[in-house]
Amino acid sequence: MGIWTSTLLLVGSLSACQKPTDHQTKQQSAEDQSLEQVKKNGVFRVAVFADNPPFGYVDSAGKPQGFDVALAKKVTKDLLGDESKIEFVVTEAANRVEFLKSGKADAVFASFSVTPERKEVVDFAQPYLKAALGIVSPKAKAITDIKQLEAKTLIVNKGSTSDIYFTKNYPKINLLKFEQNTDAFNALKDGRGDAISQDSTYALAWAAENPTFTAGIQQIGNEDFIAPAVKKGNTQLLNWLNTEILTLQKNGEIQKIYDQTLKPIYGESVDAKVFLDVTAK
């Protein structure tokens, strides 16, 4: 099985055979070798969450589980012939871009929403889920309208889509930011915030498993696409992932992964198409 670790960057020495500028040559070489380097290493290093059920988490046996994890394993099997050749790199929301930039991970499968700002610093492949933002609050003091949060405290993950969205659009809402999901939801349970905002995929799942809380606002903000990401310029690996995700969507494999990992949480009340009907990047 995969190992939970944050590995160091393996830097390859690449030879140039073209005659543009040195910078162009080095950049092209890096782009051309991104997929070959993964195959040469014999391991696919994937950044995932460890505390974001049901998408990426560690079970009671200490093994990684969840939708993103299962999808990453399937991708690894198709890429390297064996899902055990995956190496999981534990990340937090704020570290996903940096892990790609620094080379600690070859790809990110961690509920990574595509935004214009992020597209400037990483390359996103074909999306595999879509979601807006959801807001969860205690049933006894349910937040059902965004205006109820003015001058109150909303808990978010630092660097997350929720952090970016509410910072930009709702300056009258006080944000309490945490690095890790576990700390964020513990703060909600402890009453340190009036509500918490997460991707709707996660918000609905968490509320379903915590009956004293409710997703009073199930969707707010723009509809986001969730996709794998690679280091900016890793075009070869990016193109392979584009083809792979499209294939898994067309042949029903992503639906199967949904049925195994998410349907038991959402039940029949949530139509899988709400999350899986991805028609654009």
From TrEMBL:
It comes from the Bacteria. Belongs to the bacterial solute-binding protein 3 family. Residues 43-264 form the Ionotropic glutamate receptor C-terminal domain. Signal peptide: none annotated. The keyword Signal applies. Gene3D superfamilies: Periplasmic binding protein-like II. This is Transporter substrate-binding domain-containing protein. GO terms for molecular function: ligand-gated monoatomic ion channel activity. It comes from Acinetobacter piscicola.
